[in-house]
Amino acid sequence: MRMFLFAAVLLTGAACGNSQRTIAPPPTPQASTNTAGSQQKSEMKLTSTAFKEGEAIPRGYTCDGANVSPPLEWTGVPKTAKTIAIIADDPDAPAGTWVHWVLYNLPADGLGLIENTPQTETLKGGGAQGKNDFGKIGYGGPCPPSGTHRYFFKFYALDSELTLKPGATRAEVEQAMEGHIIGRAQLMGTYSRQR
After folding, report:
1. Rounded to whole angstroms, how far apart are CA atoms 132 and 46?
2. Where would I find the H helices in the chain?
3. I need a surface site. Which of 97, 129, 134, 140 has the fewest CB within 10 A?
4. How far apart are CA 125 and CA 146, in angstroms?
5. Which helix H or strand E contains 183, and what residues bound it?
6. What confidence score (pLDDT) does residue 155 get?
7. How many CB atoms lie within 10 A of CB 65?
8. Cα(103)–Cα(48) distance, rounded to whole angstroms?
9. Residue 123 and residue 86: Cα distance in Å, rounded?
10. Confidence class of residue 14 from pLDDT cuts 50, 70 and 90?
């Protein structure tokens, strides 16, 4: 009798063990929410054909080369977005975060920016460029005084057009964006000058 009970318990345990291996338990509501939230946040992507996330920015896009803006492409912009803003900066600069590029009011239905975007206050396809910390309109490439610096291209989907004239500063754009950001993405590249 003991042998029979032991065998029955063993068979029941084995059957339960097999069913647990083939059928995953249903996700908890909290896990579902987190997964959906992270999928929603990761839908927007900012990429470049010039460099990948975390890689070195090629010399041509820096002060040591032609100093032209890299091509940028984006996907996953929410359908409710009206405009796009991009801010590129270097948080490793000795005097604090250095702004390299400010763009805003780009059309939300656009797919990217070409290499060597003209350094004009307004862009032909729509949108405006602001003033960088070099005191110029448009892009100013990486030019670290020493060491390896990180350059963040921050991409924002906005639910409205910003009421700013061309030539705005980063601070003005950030203030105008408050309460209007409906999506974000980021691309980071590095650069170190060869001496």
Report:
1. 21
2. 2-22, 29-42, 170-177
3. 97
4. 37
5. strand 181-192
6. 98
7. 13
8. 16
9. 14
10. very low
CA-CA distance, 7 to 150, in Å (whole number)? 64
The pLDDT tens digits of the residues spanning 83-141 come to 999 999 999 999 999 999 999 999 999 999 999 999 999 999 999 999 999 999 999 99
Tell me the C-alpha distance between 84 and 107, whole Å. 6
- Residue 85: strand, helix, or coil: strand
CA dihedral 105, 122, 136, 94 (to 10 degrees): 20
Question: In whole angstroms, what is the distance from residue 35 CA to residue 33 CA?
Answer: 5
Write out pLDDT tens, residues 147-171: 999 999 999 999 999 999 999 999 9
Residue written as token pair 């974000």: 184
Structure tokens at 7: 């065998």
List Cβ neighbours of 69 (8 Å cut-off, separation of 6 or more).
61, 101, 113, 115, 116, 117, 138, 139, 141
